[in-house]
Amino acid sequence: MVLFGALLHASWNMLVKARPDKHVAAAVLYASSGFLAAAALPFLPTPNAASWPYMAVSTVLELLYGVVLATAYRVGDLSHAYPLMRGTAPLLVAAASGALLGERLSGRVWLGIALLSCALISLVFEGRSRRQASSATGLALLNAFLIAGYTMVDGVGARLSGNSVSYGLWLFTLIGVPWFLWAAVGQRHDGWAKLRSGIAIGIVCGACSLASYLVALWAMTRAPIATVAAVRETSIVFGTVLGAVVLREHVTWMRASAACVIAAAVWIIRSH
User: Fold this and answer.
1) How would you classify residue 188: left for phi > 0, otherwise alpha for psi between -120 and 50, otherwise beta?
2) How many other C-beta atoms lie within 10 A of the C-beta of residue 53?
3) Contact of 47 with 162, CB cutoff 8 Å
4) Fewest beta carbons less than 10 Å away: which of 98, 137, 139, 183?
5) Rounded to an integer, what distance in angstroms lies between the CA atom of residue 24 and that of residue 115?
6) What is the DSSP letter of 128?
7) What span, in angstroms and rounded, lies between the C-alpha atoms of 39 and 26?
8) In this structure, how many other beta carbons lie within 10 angstroms of the beta carbon of residue 240?
9) Cα–Cα distance list, 104 to 98, 108, 242 (Å)
């Protein structure tokens, strides 16, 4: 299930990257997923009160993540920014989960983390070879911290909610509102026109994003958060392939090798 969610995640990132206006594409994505989530809320119970503070913190982190994501895709390639931001996040989650969440990791999991680190360092050096990629590297690393933050917050929130799907739907609804207002009001007279022009692709992206994260939240109620976060990042390989095949991006041997090492590291972590 998490592997399928990873494919969905890489797919909507590829579609956002392919749009000419990345910030409007992100706005349509989150607004669409918010409307889809809101439509399902009447059919599910309300999350337990203990989970709402986590939902509030996650909403802020997710909003920041969306802005940084769109900016990173505006200045850099999908096959560079996506592996870096998604690959660093499990490393951060694993490092913090023991101290903050009390989750103990085995030696095999730490071996996978070490492989992730080596692959990520190679991507950072590869990114410095070009000015554009260097800017994307900084934004991707910033987003990695945001991803790690909302992953741990949502992992705990979903466990406290009593219903991970309901928690996720409420979360996406709250995230979708400010993005919709930004696109419709913040863009003035162009806002509605841009929304209408991207509504079809936005619904597809929103459905993929919503389904992918609901699967991850469900999994985090049944397995350690660090493990789920790591397995989910097989989307790195999907993102690299989609960037090369669909977007016709130039994938250097270092990027391709790093993606393969990251995939191997995720497999090691998952096998435990």
Assistant:
1) left
2) 12
3) yes
4) 98
5) 36
6) T
7) 20
8) 26
9) 5, 12, 35
CA distance 214 to 216: 5
Is residue 30 within 8 A of residue 259, CB to CB? The reply is: no
CA–CA dist 86, 236 (Å, integer): 7
Other residues' Cβ atoms within 10 Å of the Cβ of residue 72: 27
More confidently predicted of 96 and 50:
50
Residue type, 179: W
Cα separation, 226 vs 70, in Å, equals: 25
- Residue 223, sorted as left (phi over 0), alpha (psi -120 to 50) or beta, turns out to be beta
**Residue 21: closest CA among 200, 203, 239, 183:** 183
Which structure tokens are listed for 87? 């690959």
Question: What are the tokens at 148?
Answer: 């790690």
Question: pLDDT tens across 50-92, in order?
Answer: 999 999 999 999 999 888 887 877 777 766 777 777 777 877 8
Region at 157 (left for phi over 0; alpha for psi -120 to 50; beta for the rest) = alpha
Output the CA torsion sign for 188, 193, 199, 205: negative
**Whole-prediction pTM:** 0.79
Give the span between the Cα atoms of 225 and 166, in whole angstroms: 18
User: Considering only CA atoms, which of 25, 31, 3 is closest in space to residue 13?
Assistant: 25
185 class by beta-carbon count within 10 Å (0-12 exposed, 13-18 middle, 19+ buried): exposed
**pLDDT tens, residue by residue, 234-251:** 777 777 777 777 777 776
Token representation of residue 69: 């994501």
List the structure tokens of 173.
């609804």
